[in-house]
Amino acid sequence: MSAPANADQSNTSKANIPKLQIVRKDSFTEGTPSTRMGWYGSTSNEAKEIMQEQAVYGRYDYEKLATIKVFGVVKKTVLEEGTLWKETGVWAMLFWAVFGYVYWKRPEGFSGILGSEAGIRAFLMMFSTLIGLLLSFYTALSLGRWWQMRLGVQQIGDAAKKLTMMLSQGVTDDEVLLGTIHRYARASLFLIFCASQHEEGAEPPLDRAFARGLLHEEEADKLKKLNPNMTFVQAETLWVWLANAVSRLNAQGLTKGPPHYCLLMGAVEQGRAGVTNIQTHLDTPIPFGYVHLLCLMVKLHNFLVTILLALTSVMLSGGAEGFRPVGVFRTAFRAFFMPFLYNSILILNSDVTDPFGADAGDFDFQAYDVNIAMSAQSSTHAKDHLPDWIANAQFKPPASQV
User: Fold this and answer.
1) Is residue 115 part of a domain?
2) What is the pTM of this model?
């Protein structure tokens, strides 16, 4: 894209906009406040470049996954899960142990004792169909909850953007207030991430938010006095403080009447509701009894598949028809593939249960943090950098009023 004719003027205007402080992505718990009051940032240079220049973050190459290159994709996939490979190793050892022992001790008339291969496949197919149906329902439910939590994150970000836009365009130029709006929104979201990633003996989420510069010392102390332990209550309280600020603006006559005041309070409520929605899904998991039964049936299915297909492989490795390599390969492959697939689905469902953790596929706080901060910064200073057709225009009234 070619540079605009008024590039020098654009660069001069940009120089007047306060810059966000850059904090490395790998220092999640570190960071200091910006020297300019109200503007705080926390992202790596790479993340900032993506958000500013490409306006995309966290996406992946769909076309690559649709080609044979998908076999080379390992990072941020279930293939990185050590638990999956341990489980696969257990079933593999069981398969070869049963196969080796029965092959060595193979009794006379073994094929007649075991029955036909078609009968074994039909039995396992009945079991696999039931497990597949239950896993499909469980996966759909888990992904639905995951998406609702993502919408909760979006509620928090949109509330900050909406409130900043409505206040900065005609209500107040108070830089501390406008900067505090996005700072509180980011702090409330940061507390949610900290609550999910908190470990025994680690620094409390509120202290981490203060160390990062998202909260001032006075604010952190008062949140502790209001509620010293419950992180989600602290996150909601930040929005209550913003509601109080909006009410004070209305009492001073700075808002444009009751409808405008209601819209401002609605934006504050949207952010508070986002925190509540996320807490609801995190505090109310899928019923334990259902998940226990499903996992029990999957493990029982994997056990039966491993045992029966190991015996089937022995049957196809000797007898009157001799060794049948295609049949043995087909049976052994299914014995490894089906448990691997079902265990992978269970692990993926476990990962999306709490997407605010530190897993590779979880939500990335850095992306949301920098997006909220940059959007608020742009909205606040938009009136100082208006296009000429707006800045110099004298808008005409409707013809009926002329």
Assistant:
1) yes
2) 0.79
| 63 is a domain residue | no
CA distances for 136 relative to 121, 158, 248, 295, 305, angstroms: 22, 32, 51, 13, 20
Q: Let me know if residue 118 belongs to a domain.
A: yes
Q: Hey, how many other C-beta atoms are within 10 angstroms of the C-beta on 268?
A: 24
Q: Which two tokens stand for residue 237?
A: 């309280």
Distant-in-sequence, close-in-space partners of 151: CB < 8 Å, separation ≥ 6: 277
Helix (H) or strand (E) holding 338: helix 325-353
Query: For 324, phi and psi rounded to 5 degrees?
Result: -115, 95
pLDDT band at 59 (very low <50, low <70, confident <90, very high): low
Question: What range does the domain containing 125 cover?
Answer: 81-381
pLDDT at 1: 39
- Tell whether the model's pLDDT for residue 5 goes beyond 50: no
Going by C-beta distance under 8 Å and a sequence separation of 6 or more, which residues neighbour residue 323?
A: 316, 317
Reported as a pLDDT band with limits 50, 70 and 90, residue 14 is: very low
Query: Distance (Å, rounded) from C-alpha 72 to C-alpha 58?
Result: 19
Q: Count of domains in the chain? A: 1
Look at residue 70 and tell me if it is in a domain: no
